[in-house]
Automatic annotation (TrEMBL):
One of its GO terms (molecular function) is ATP binding. Belongs to the ABC transporter superfamily. Signal peptide: none annotated. This is ABC transporter ATP-binding protein. InterPro entries: AAA+_ATPase, ABC_AA/LPS_Transport, ABC_transporter-like_ATP-bd, ABC_transporter-like_CS, BCA_ABC_TP_C, P-loop_NTPase. GO terms for cellular component: plasma membrane. Pfam families: ABC_tran (PF00005), BCA_ABC_TP_C (PF12399). PANTHER family: CONSERVED COMPONENT OF ABC TRANSPORTER FOR NATURAL AMINO ACIDS (PTHR45772:SF9), CONSERVED COMPONENT OF ABC TRANSPORTER FOR NATURAL AMINO ACIDS-RELATED (PTHR45772). It comes from the Bacteria.
Length: 259
């Protein structure tokens, strides 16, 4: 297997009219690594994440996944390549069960297409069985298998967030992009999430995590990139980053004060 980073972002810039939300940010995610991107409110984390994940095109810069240029590529195409994302705000179908939510999302990435589904061909039937298997496996992984047939809107908030991760995992990615997975979680749910993220990595999935919660980032990441006003101001191991004076000034100082 190649030593090349699984994700290479070079000189990423995103402007909205006169406002540059992300300015010339470069980073890499190594295979098997959990990389965190942090920054204070309005730093540009969500914009950075959305550009990488294919939700909006960059103004300039490139994104390569396993050496393939996927700059500006649609999220469903990226999923087929092996990179999937979660959403900060829930994107679930409320009136479908947890199981059907995972299945519905998986069809978008593993599909023989509409002709196969209309003809109910052998390929379609075996694909259906494979989709159901990977959906249940993903639910088991996030400890929701016993809640598989509960409607999404009847799940607790923490369970819904875990279901989002199951949806991304069911596509069997090699790189998982997590958008503020701990948002709105209580400390106990946050701890459970940390364990789950480590388990995902132990299965061989590399992870890019954009997160506001310092405890989650410090507890789970191998390396951290700090963004402020759209600019990368620091990068290193969590223990280095927490002692970086620029980081303390723009981010940790506020967190420490409010902790
Ligand atoms: N679609 C948009 N149009 C115009 N400005 C935008 C748009 N999206 C984001 N911005 C601006 O870009 C800057 C960065 O916003 P972004 O949401 O990426 O930051 P963030 O670090 O994710 O913040 P938070 O932690 O509060 O979610 C902000 O000034 C924001 O107002």
């Amino acid at each position: 297997m190649s030593d090349r980073p699984i994700l290479e972002v070079v000189g990423l810039t995103k402007s909205f009219g006169g406002l540059t939300a992300v300015s010339d940010v470069s980073l890499t995610v190594d295979r098997g690594e959990i990389l965190g991107v942090i920054g204070p409110n309005g730093a540009g984390k969500t914009t950075f994440f959305n550009v990488i994940a294919g939700s909006m095109p960059p103004t300039s810069g490139t994104v390569h996944f396993e050496g393939t240029d996927c700059t500006g590529m649609r999220a469903d195409h990226m999923a087929r390549l092996g990179m999937t994302r979660t959403f900060q705000i829930t994107s679930l179908f409320p009136a479908l069960s947890a199981f059907d939510n995972v299945r519905a999302a998986t069809y978008r990435t593993k599909s023989t297409g509409w002709i196969g589904s209309i003809m109910r061909s052998a390929a379609y039937r075996s694909e259906e069985a494979a989709v159901s298997d990977s959906a249940m496996e993903a639910l088991r992984f996030v400890e929701l298998d016993k809640r598989a047939h509960v409607m999404a809107d009847a799940l607790s908030y923490g369970e819904q967030r875990r279901l989002e991760i199951a949806i991304a995992l069911a596509a069997e990615p090699r790189l998982l992009l997590l958008d503020e997975p701990a948002a709105g979680m209580n400390p106990e749910e946050g701890q459970r999430l940390v364990g789950m993220i480590k388990k995902i990595r132990d299965r061989g999935v590399s992870i890019l995590l954009v997160e506001h919660h310092m405890r989650v980032v410090m507890g789970v990441c191998d390396r951290v990139v700090v963004i402020d006003h759209g600019i990368k101001i620091a990068e290193g191991a969590p223990s280095e980053v927490v002692n970086n004076p620029d980081v303390i000034r723009v981010y940790l100082g506020r967190e420490a004060v409010s902790a």
